[in-house]
Amino acid sequence: MNxxxxxxxxxxxxxDGQNGQExxxxxxxxxxxxxxxxxxxxxxGQPGPAPSGxxxxxxxxxxxxxxxxxxxxGPQGAPxxxxxxxxxxxxxxxxxxxxxxxxxxxGGYGPGPGGHPGWGGGWGGPPPxxxxxxxxxxxxxxxxxxxGAVSTMRTHWRTVLGISLxxxxxxxxxxxxxxxxxxxxxxxxxxxxxxxxxxxxxxxxMGDTLLNSGVVLLITLLGTIVAxxxxxxxTSRAVLGKSVTTAEAWRDARPQLLKLFGLTFLLPLxxxxxxxxxxxxxxxxxxxxxxxxxxxxxxxxxxxxxxVAVWMMxxxxxxxxxxxxxxxxxxxxxxxSAKLVRGSWWRVFGIQLLATIIANIVASIIVxxxxxxxxxxxxxxxxxxxxSGTGDLGWTFLIVSGIGSVIGSMLTFPITAxxxxxxxxxxxxxxxALDLDLARATGLQDHGSGTPGPTPGS
Length: 458
Hints:
Transmembrane segments: 160-182, 215-240, 260-288, 294-314, 345-373, 393-425
Oligomer: single chain
Protein name: Glycerophosphoryl diester phosphodiesterase membrane domain-containing protein
InterPro entries: DUF7847
Region (Disordered): 1-109
Distance between the termini: 26 Å
Shape: globular
Structural class: mainly alpha
Keywords: Membrane, Transmembrane, Transmembrane helix
C-alpha cells in the first residue's frame, strides 16, 4: 500500500468503438460487417442489383403497399409479425439484456441475465462493495466505523491487546511509583478539606494538587501517544485484511514518534492559547477595577474560547493518522486534517464524541469497581472514598486501582485509536477515492465499476 497522498485516480473508459461496432452521431453503434442485402444477391423473387451511381435511385418495380414486409424482416407476402405483449404490472418482470449479458439500464426490478442486477432502479441495488478486511471499501456509516474498530481488536487480538496491555502496564507502573514515592498529596487534601485554612495554604495546596495531576496526566498522555502510533499501523493493515506483529508495528511507527509527540503537545498548547485570548479582556477589565463587569466579560470570553477550542480540536482530530500513515510533518498533518474535515465537521464531531462516550463508559464499568475494592482493602472503607473522592493513597489502594486502570486502558485504547484511523480512511474514501487504491493494494482489479455511493444515514 502506498502511503503517499497523491495516488492516481481511476482511468477513464476508451472512447473508440468496441466489439467491431462503429458509433454513430445520434444512435447506437451499428455493426460494420452487414449481411449482403437481397438487391446484391440476386435471389429469385427479389429485385435486381441496385444501380451503383451516385445518390439514391429507386427501382421501377415496387411491390404493392399491402405487401411491404414488416419492420421485423418477415418474408414478402407473410403476415406482419405481432410484437410481444408488454410485461404485466407485477414487480418481477425481467429487463431486456444489454451487451455482455447485463440487464438494461432503464429500470429493471430484478436481477438480469447472468445474475447481474439492473442499475436503473432495481430493488436489489448495485453489487456489494468488496471487504478484504474489517471494513467494506466504500463510504462508511457510523455503525460500520465503530464495528470496524471492534473487529480489529477481535480479529487481531494478540497484537492489539498485547500493545495496549504493554503500554498500560508501563504507564501505570510509573504512575504508581510517582504517587507512592514522590507525589504524596495527602497533606494537600487535608488542607483543602480544612475550613480554617488560610488563603496562602489553600493556594499552595491547590498548586501541589494541580502539579501532581499534571504529572500523572503527562505520563498517561505519553502512553496514549505510543499506543495510538502502534495501533494506527495495526488498524491500517487490518483494513487490507493483513495482520502485523508488534515488532513490525513498532518498526513502522518508530520514525514518526517524535513528530507525534510534537503534534500531541502542540494541540493542547493551541487550546490553552485560545482560552487565554478569550479570558484576557476580562482580566484586563478586572485589573482596571471593572468589578462585576470584569467577571461577566471573563466568563463570556471563556465560553467563546471554549467553543473555538473545540472547533479547532475537531478540525485537527485527523492529524495523527495523517502524520503516521502519510509520513507527513506536523504542520502538513494539521493541514491535511483540516482539509479532510472541511464540510464534515459535525459528522466528525459526532463520531468522535460517540467513541469517547463509549470508551469512558467501558472504562468506568471496569475502573469504578476496582476503586471501591481498593478502598475497602486499604483499611479506610468505602466511606472514605465517597467522602474525599480519592481515598488513602497507600500501596494497596494504588496497586488495586492501578490493576483496574490497566484493564480499562487495554480495552479503550483500541476503540479510540481505531475509530480515529477508520474515520480518517472514510474521509479519504469520500474525498479522494482511496477505496480504489486500497482495492489495488489487495489485488482487487475490478473494484470501482459498481461501487455504490455513500451509505444512507451516514
